[in-house]
Amino acid sequence: MFAYITRRVLVSIPLLAVALYLVFIGVSLTTDPRADFYLCLPRCQDGFDRITEVYNLDTNVWLRPFIWFGEALTGDLGESTTIGQPVTEVLRTRGWNTAMIAVPAFLVSAIFALLLSVYSARHQYTFGDYFFTGLAFVGLAFPSFVLALVIQNIFGVQFQNWFGVKPFNTGRKTGTNFLELLRDITLPAMSLAILFISADSRFGRASMLETLNQDYIRTARAKGISERSVVWKHALRNALIPLVTLWALNFSALLSGSVVTESIFSWPGLGPAFITGLQASDLDLVLGIVLLTGSIVVVFNLIADVLYGVLDPRIRLN
Asked: Which of 18, 58, 143, 203 is the most buried (most CB within 10 A)?
């Protein structure tokens, strides 16, 4: 196991470096941080020279990424010119904001997707199965920005007063108590959870149906084992393997920042920061977010691979 994890980490490092290099080159070739200074030259020559020095724009574009890599290895990710803070501080604060809606959204979506998968598989072609299948297709058909706007309009605008109480906020507020935080995160987390429940429940249903038709499940039933034990103890463990893959991708995507949802709910997470960095040619901010999100994807895919061996001992990782 240790050798497998080490090998995966060593393979992931160059992949992440190549991704960062390509992003750096792509942004450098398509944008220029000095664009606003060209019109006022030579009056703003000092500012022009300062931007040139900060981003090493006097160095060949194909060599600049290596300068950034060297600084990043020392823990210096630069400073965001658009937000006015060190990139490490931006990643810490914005990443925490994203996690506040990503973790609840993931937990809710995973639990409900699992329960719906088991229910639909056990009650195949019944009214309940058709009902939840229809809801899943409706959820999949809604674009993320439409769903977020609908939820925001219904619960944050049309029905914002429930018996004299406002249960939901439509953006990040300044309150620090738990109730205020709960009001902040509910609507964006709900918007993200619905999308993942719709997709994961379909995959889970198919995996559960395939598992329930396996010979060892028929043998367990023939031995007189209760249906509850057959489903939750014997079948579910193998049916979880495809879902673990989806959950690893979902969780890493959520922690990487949901651009549309965070923008609609005015949530100061990683998604809006990334868009701001791209629009303003803020290379240090863009690369810092790519480094963080790439690392998250690598870590959670590694966790998923390890869980395969835990769920199914027949899968050997060494």
From this structure: 203
d(CA 143, CA 283): 30
Q: Phi first, then psi: give them for residue 60, nearest 5 degrees.
A: -55, 135
pLDDT tens readout for residues 154-209: 887 777 777 666 777 776 655 567 777 888 888 889 989 998 998 899 989 998 99
Contact call for residues 180 and 165 (beta carbons, < 8 A) = no
Residues 83-87 have a mean pLDDT of 87
For 288-299, what is each residue's pLDDT tens digit? 888 888 888 888
Can you give the residue ranges of every domain in the chain?
2-82, 88-311
How far, CA to CA in Å, does 174 sit from each of 101, 127, 177, 183? 16, 46, 9, 12
Q: How many CB atoms lie within 10 A of CB 286?
A: 25
Which 8-state DSSP code applies to residue 296?
A: H
Beta bridge partners of 85: 80
Q: What is the pTM of this model?
A: 0.82
DSSP 57: T
Residue 198 Cα distances to 82, 141, 187, 212, 277, angstroms: 37, 10, 17, 21, 32
For residue 78, the model assigns a pLDDT of 84
CA separation (Å) from 36 to 24, 27, 48, 162, 280?
A: 20, 17, 9, 49, 10
Report the C-alpha gap between 307 and 304 in whole angstroms: 5
Going by CATH, does the domain composed of 88-311 fall within 1.10.3720.10? yes
Cα distance between residue 196 and residue 136, in whole Å:
10
Q: What is the pLDDT of residue 113?
A: 92
- Sequence-distant (6+) residues with CB within 8 A of 276 are 82, 83, 282, 285
